[in-house]
Fold each of these.
Amino acid sequence: MNRICPVRYWLSAATAALLLTSAQAKADVCNDSEGVVLQVLGSGGPIADDARASYAYLVWIIGKSRVMIDAGGGAFLRFGEAAAEFSELDVIAISHFHTDHSADLVTLLKTGFFSARQRPLAVNGPDAGGPFPSLDDYLDSNIGRGNAYGYLSGYLDGTGGLVKLLPTTIDPSRRDSVQVFASEDGVIELTATGVPHGIVPAIAYRVTVGDYDIVFASDQNGNDDEFVAFAREADVLVMHMVVAEDAAGAMRALHAPPSRIGEIAARANAGKLVLSHFMSRSLQSLDQNIELVRENYRGEIIPAADLLCVAID
Ligand SMILES: [Zn+2]
């Protein structure tokens, strides 16, 4: 059952109180489940014209916010609105180092300083490629001693009252499925594969919790059939509908058109398809693009919204 929680963006003094009520309602719906719930933290892209946070997701497991996929700009705010807890996170997995997927990682680390967390935190991300850094280089350039936010360098060595990060770097050229994280209690397994996203090293993740699987496709052009195998039989497949059907050139090299998204979901036999990564320009043609997806995929299609919850059952 999918539960869509409305978000109010235009605040007056009178509606501010309503927003608090609304945010609490969302949190209650997402985290009071006895099962597995996917929550969209950010459903927007890199353009600030749509009142959406950039891309980020949580996976709630029996009421705990245990897995976070990506941390685009605005994820910090939505993380708090969702009543997520930094101390509950087992792993944060970054798909690639475009700002709309990663820029709020450091702000989340800072909020973690104020949490009760004492155990290390696993962090996953791609290896370097082109102008993009490896996960280790990204962390060092942000929070390495003497660098931009070096006052958080304790995350690299577990000093200064900060918990140690446990980075796992993933080779984006790999097209097989590789396990990149398993929780100590055996509840969560995270596997990964590289996906084609122009020159950008990019990783798709599959979160397995018992019998349930959620696949996060990341940004990708959909041209590599290996991803279909990676996503096979996912209960929920999350894909990004960024470009129109007639996209060409650089945009097509980065992103899959709607018909291709539908084809991938159908061939993977995904249970539900969550479409995300919207901006004003793509929202204008959302309905017609969903119809193009539907021509190839007969399952349930769910357009993402910030703070939306999708129960996995
Ligand atoms: Zn991207």
Note: Residues 96, 98, 197, 200, 219 surround zinc ion (CB under 6 Å).
Amino acid sequence: MRTDQDQPVRLEDYQPPNWLVETVDLDVSLHPTASRVRATLRLKPNPAAPAAAPLALDGDGLTLRSIKLDGAPLAPESYAATPDRLSIAQPPRHPFVLEIETQVDPSANTQLSGLYRAGDTYCTQCEAEGFRRITYFPDRPDVMAVYTTRIEAEKSEAPVLLANGNLVEAGDIPGTTRHHAVWHDPFPKPSYLFALVGGVLGHVADEFVTMSGRRVALRIYVEPGKERRAGFAMDALKRAMRWDEEAFGREYDLDIFMIVAVSAFNMGAMENKGLNIFNDKYVLASPETATDEDYANIDGIIAHEYFHNWTGNRITCRDWFQLCLKEGLTVFRDQEYTADQRSRAVERIADVRVLRAHQFVEDAGPLAHPVRPEVYREINNFYTPTVYEKGAEIVRMLRTMLGADGFRKGMDLYFARHDGEAATVEQFVACFADATDSDLEQFMRWYRQAGTPEVAVTVRHDAKAATCTLEIAQMLPPTPGQPVKETMVIPLTLGLVAPDGRDLPLRLADGRMVERGVLTLTRPAETYVFAGVPARPVASLNRGFSAPIRLTANLTPDDLRFLAAHDSDAFNRWQALQTLAVTLLIDNVTALRASQPMRTDAGLVRALETILADPRLEPAFVARALTLPTESDIARELGRDVDPDAIFTARNALRATVGEGLGAALRDAYRRLADSAPYSPDAASAGRRALKNVALDLLAASGSSAAIAMAARQYSSADNMTDRMAAVTTLSLHPVRERQAAIDDFYRRYRDDALVLDKWFALQAAIPEAAALDRVRELTRHPAFSLGNPNRVRSLIGAFAQMNQTQFNRADGEGYAFLVDHVLALDAHNPQVASRLMTAFKSWRALEPGRRGKAEAELRRVATASSLSTDVRDIVERSLAEP
Ligand SMILES: [Zn+2]
């Protein structure tokens, strides 16, 4: 295990590799505790590197068994091998072949990086630096090689043997109980995309015919007996393959595409070339075991990993600083896929909620970093919302500024220019500049500067001159290491909505029209005067969330209610309601902390009623509109002196007011939306269920005992997991007799189903009451709980820290101490999951002084612990650094 390495890696120190690898021939003999790996590397000097460079290969915990150069064993004095490095000081000056034999213990690999076992299945995870845990290698993404992989195993233990590429050979090994398979991947790839799998697996098979008429075999491998639950994932895969052809002109390239679902996985899924490996949570679904949200996640993640075949695999990253090049771009692509498959407005709202809940919070705290960081100590800690979600927003802004045609031209040029290469962010952006003849120099600051821009708009109407003036100022707050910022380019999409609800033409006073409704802000302050505006309009700003900014404007509550009812931009209808609710909630949090009475906002309730009664709106949108800002949303908007108890009280009061105020309409909606047809996961059906269940939850929040009875009835009569889960979640928020009965019943029904049992743990971890911590502690002793399974850790400890704001942030600091105890216990086994848990402290400085002190004490307890992993040390030291 790598511990306490304190050498930061810097972008400015990048050097091309001294040696290139043309081909890799791997011969892996699987064994539970002693798997043998023979790697034959065909190396050649890199013409771009200094002559006579030494050869240094990365390792991590490896044991060298033998080494040969051009077929002859190497003399011991001519090389040096440690667990972390294999170096040859004076390698030949010409191409040569190096044969390396190592041995690894997959069963002892609890980090789940490299070759490990998920249950009894052998599998690999090599991103970012796992390949060096299998064999010595120049383990960096700009070394791209052609791989041939031979796998050998006991037939009984691993009848299925898979690796990247196409199958070229398979058969029994005569005179033994073993067999083998040989896979060849003709596309050069970096080592992080290597994968192999061996195990007892069932599968579903299908076929896809590409746009040029090639037949591609599709396989999804799952635990035997769970094949039926892979049908939706297969359907999603085929839709994703078709969409990428239609939307981006990208065709699949191998003869076969495989997905393997495993039960122990650190992340969501991994895009290994031709052989994606997935957390089974994002593959397996049936109406009885998966919610609509699970189905939507599967759809999006299957698509995301598939899309990487072009954005990540065919064109990869030069170095890990460029991670957003593949991740931001591929998140943008999966968001667009979902928008086309489902509802564009609802998808945009969902994406922005995620961005604000995770990325805005990260950007405002001690872990803030640019979308392309310039230094890291542990790359595993940079798989962040900033790299992924804000990275996607940057790509979206490019499209907003260049238009759909210009954007497509830039993407086509990127694919044509860089296919087969390891590229940089500069090269990516240059494709858009070149394809559309645009200057994107200032735009590059989005990649370099951390922090969320703050944009303030003042709208003034002059009836006599029939003009409307917008004064717009932008500011980027300081972030760690970046005290002073440069002005950003901000594409601000807007509309001016006339009193009759129609959009006015956007004609500036000098006669120019605003193209596609997008103002491109480039200066700290600028003024736009619109002409031909006789009556006072309401400005609808940052439509569709065209830029990832914090926006303030001099809009009145009447203006916001007007937008909520009339804006042609659905996103801003939703945003107007959110702004009204957050404003009220923040006022009430302030009042509670000053022991003043809370206020009510009858206008907000009426605005919600209007939305609920509008038959033209799709139910999924109405469900979003009726979902009040979360406790975390309110804390984020407050930004300082956060008291989670006051936030909880204010929010609960508003939920009760809305539930009471809309009572009859909610009951009507609940009845109207009850569906007797068989379950279908399609977006329209899911939207109806979402609205029905929001209605049920608001009714229960109003204190109605009839609603509790409705929830209990829905729980027991539900024919699908969405309705059952929604009912038990609603019950869990109320200390009623029906609650424990449902929780106990849930366990009895699903005790043998790991993925559903995760829901049972998470449900209880999130109950916002004083007994929660004791309950969670008790659950860590449950026979089904294990620190060895990342999904289980996330479902109990992760859910408690992320979803239970009042109890994780207990005033006595016991919630923090609990988390730290488990981080320290987990760190020795699985540092990636441990450091992920530590990020629950990312907003600790925004807490009120009492809790802030308790959080700091726990952070210091971690910082002073002995033998921390690099992963956790990096997070804790950055969290504690002076702002
Ligand atoms: Zn990805």
Note: The chain has 26 helices and 31 strands.
